[in-house]
């Protein structure tokens, strides 16, 4: 049985179209890249969770988040801290400068299982040899993002 979990992430887009991603190696689904974000705390809205997680994982407190700028929602399964979960995520879209994370985030990254980070250009995302990104539709979603309504991807299976 999978435990339901609500989460929020932020697709931070640089002026050149690159998106900031973290690298994970999950015990159930393997290596993948995903945007900053995580689970909602009790009483927290999705937007509040996205902002909190962005600061905790990148040190960026100046990225403008807007509840109306949603890229997509999706649901997927994975194992978190040894517990199988079915996670429903909302991914917010936000502009930001292309820069490194701020401050010493090594303890936060270790606790969240973050192994690495980098900016992915649209060409990087489209490379068929690249490691998986979550959601798998991310390259198409970002290419169509400007001016488009949020997309509900529904349940998307992810596999190693």
From TrEMBL:
InterPro entries named among the record's database cross-references: Nudix_hydrolase, NUDIX_hydrolase-like_dom_sf, NUDIX_hydrolase_CS, NUDIX_hydrolase_dom
Domain (Nudix hydrolase) ranges: 3-142
Cofactor(s) annotated in UniProt: Mg(2+)
Protein keywords: Hydrolase, Magnesium
UniProt xrefs under Pfam families: NUDIX
Family: Belongs to the Nudix hydrolase family.
Protein name: NUDIX domain-containing protein
Gene source species: Streptomyces millisiae
